[in-house]
Amino acid sequence: MALDSPRVAGSGAADDRGGGDAAIILRSRHEPEHFAVLFGKYATQIQRYATRRLGAGAADDVVAETFLVAFKQRDRFDLARADARPWLYGISTNLIGRHRRAEIRQYRALARTGIDPVAEPFTDRVDAAASADRSSKPLAAALAGLPAAHRDALLLVAWGDLTYEQAAGALARRRSRRRQKRRSSPRSAAPTARPPGRAA
Question: Is the pTM of this model over 0.90?
Fold first, then answer.
């Protein structure tokens, strides 16, 4: 059973012609309610991705916050990109980063039970436990042991269904923001000490 995203009046094929997601975002800059079309297209995908990484409870918050952040930052979206998925997945991955402990708990639970949190609500719990894929347990344990940056890249491709280039682009924006924060931190502005024995 698939989750259905809400349909928005006026959404549909006509909104996707001539620019795809970029056209939707451009129009939403003047008609903010039109941003709901983007939500209708991608909320279910972002929900599945966040649920696999954090579980259903935290995923709901991540999805809501992803689209709130995207809405607030829509003026900064690069309209040369027709596909907004890498941008949305990048935002959600950053938000998931705030929940690293919950994510590791999720993988450890999957390693113990073998039950995928995305599939589990739609199947009988007993059947799911009996037919759980044996490979999911060691995979979940391996995911829990990966460094966060490696896990993010892997899961954007595997679960987010992004290309390598799209995943790299989604993660590059985060690395760029971190570098900017480091440069502006008080420690980076502090003068460096001279090595002993050197004259000024």
Answer: no
